[in-house]
Specification:
The chain has helices spanning about 1-15, 20-25, 30-35, 45-55, 60-70, 90-100, 115-125, 135-145, 165-170, 175-185, 240-255, 260-274; strands spanning about 100-105, 155-165, 195-200, 210-215, 225-230, 235. It has twelve helices and six strands. It has about 270 residues and is α/β, with parallel strands linked by helices. The chain is elongated, with a radius of gyration of 21 Å.
Length: about 270
């Protein structure tokens, strides 16, 4: 998806149609569309020809984009879990692992990167009714593996606003919820984690459309991606005007929510009540 976004930007900057781009690599207009949406694999020769067509002659820039093409064709570690994942989710896991900044708002439950194992099991069992215990455990194992991103040497910045509803809606028994609240208090102390709670007392707020995640990448010329999960699919938005709207909503959520210290106090208060 990231490479496709880059290729689309380069093509549009040159005023070249998808039809003309497709002709240059002996392919159809629809294939160029699929490439730019990140829905097909990339042949090195095709990428080289497109870069030439788009006037990219700088060797460093070509090498960077060709390296991205090679990476795009390598199956990530998460693909071994594809048998227990919805078809659209492996793409998100790959983007999440490549991000340098993850910003999110959650309302239904605690974000997957912050879930305890017991809480994750309760969430997965609720979402995978009728699944075997082995499938539930594999799904949970993937979630725990993703959490290693936050403690990695090159860990991303993670800015999360959790709606109070996510903390009061029980998944699992009392001890599971207490363990989850305690974990949130502890992980909120990490230098790369900014955790805020949007309290019920605030009333209506800019997160009215539901949960969303904004992924930003270390390469400055790669556009941000907004991830929206739905019941049977997911949306990946990277158009500037779309991303800007979600960035504005998240900024308002952050401004309207208590700061990190006050949010940690809210968590302690909920822990005492649980």
């Amino acid at each position: 998806m990231l490479l496709g976004s880059q290729l689309r930007r380069l093509r549009e900057a040159r005023g070249i149609t998808r039809e003309a781009a497709g002709y240059s690599i002996r392919a159809s207009e629809s294939k160029i569309s699929r490439m730019e949406l990140g829905r097909v694999s990339f042949k090195t020769r095709d990428v080289e020809d497109l870069l030439t067509l788009y006037g990219i002659t700088d060797e460093a820039e070509r090498t960077s984009l060709l390296s991205l093409a090679k990476e795009a064709n390598v199956a990530g570690w998460w693909h071994s879990y594809s048998d227990v994942l919805p078809s659209w989710f492996p793409t998100y896991v790959g983007l999440e692992g490549a991000a340098s900044l993850i910003r999110a708002y959650e309302v239904q439950f605690v974000h997957g990167l912050l879930q305890t194992e017991a809480y994750a099991q309760a969430v997965v069992r609720r979402g995978m009714k009728g699944a075997s215990e082995a499938d539930v455990e594999r799904r949970v194992a993937l979630r725990l593996e993703r959490q290693k991103y936050l403690v990695d040497e090159n860990a991303p910045e993670f800015h999360i606003v959790l709606d109070e509803a996510a903390l009061r809606r029980p998944y699992g028994d009392r001890e599971v919820m207490r363990g989850q609240l305690q974990h949130l208090i502890e992980v909120s102390e990490r230098p790369n984690v900014r955790l805020q709670i949007m309290p019920f007392s605030f009333g209506g707020h800019s997160g009215e459309s539901g949960a969303f995640t904004i992924l930003s990448f270390p390469e400055s010329d790669l556009s941000d991606v907004v991830y929206l999960e739905q019941l049977t699919s997911a949306l990946y938005l990277d158009k500037h005007e779309d991303v800007t709207q979600y960035e504005k909503a998240l900024k308002e959520l952050q401004q309207d929510s208590p700061g990190t210290d006050e949010s940690r106090d809210l968590l302690r208060g909920l822990l005492q009540l649980s």
